[in-house]
């Protein structure tokens, strides 16, 4: 395929909203897009190749230039600090990062522990607060950690708040608001600037329309 543009899409929660946004922007994505186990999907009519990656890995593919563009949560970008540019706030999948724990508990005075999928963000946050904590990296189900005594606090994504509530946890502090962003490889941005700018224009029109509603 000539003039192919490769886009890294995050599998999971963001995927549906991101696909919907691309369709609203006028890109013709096949039905296969929504219900497939394929990890590489070519959309010849649009001269797109999509790669379906774990959300945390999207900035890695874009930094290495195997994807020109990517859709990544701000949480992932803050954690990974990759050499990429952020082009547009897509304003989808809004949520925030928060410190949470068992209600009415204080952090252990000696070697308090914080469990998280975001060790860099969590470490920076507690450093700024002047608190020395031990960070315990987990890959999911973070809410388990305080419940079974692995940590005093967690740093995790809160979306609806349901997971915290159903597990009897409360939020102590909000750290930062999160939405998904369109990111680009700096070299791709230079050499494919015209096509990329067209995509940004189309997407930002939809994003602005939705914000005005
Ligand atoms: C995320 C996050 C919380 C939950 C928050 O986990 O880590 O656990 O969603 O959403 P809520 O506020 O709407 O309940 P995810 O489901 O992505 O899976 P994970 O536990 O494997 O990280």
Automatic annotation (TrEMBL):
Coiled coil: none annotated. It holds the Pfam family HisG. Residues 54-204 form the ATP phosphoribosyltransferase catalytic domain. The keyword Nucleotide-binding applies. Keywords: Amino-acid biosynthesis, ATP-binding, Cytoplasm, Glycosyltransferase, Histidine biosynthesis, Nucleotide-binding, Transferase. CDD domains: PBP2_HisGs. Its main location: cytoplasm. InterPro entries: ATP_PRibTrfase_cat, ATP_PRibTrfase_CS, ATP_PRibTrfase_HisG, ATP_PRibTrfase_HisG_short. It is found in: Cytoplasm. Its EC number is 2.4.2.17. One of its GO terms (cellular component) is cytoplasm. It catalyses: 1-(5-phospho-beta-D-ribosyl)-ATP + diphosphate = 5-phospho-alpha-D-ribose 1-diphosphate + ATP. Gene3D superfamilies: Periplasmic binding protein-like II (3.40.190.10). Lacks the C-terminal regulatory region which is replaced by HisZ. Belongs to the ATP phosphoribosyltransferase family. Short subfamily. Catalyzes the condensation of ATP and 5-phosphoribose 1-diphosphate to form N'-(5'-phosphoribosyl)-ATP (PR-ATP). Has a crucial role in the pathway because the rate of histidine biosynthesis seems to be controlled primarily by regulation of HisG enzymatic activity. This is ATP phosphoribosyltransferase. It comes from Bacillus infantis NRRL B-14911. The lineage of its organism: Bacteria, Bacillati, Bacillota, Bacilli, Bacillales. The gene is hisG.
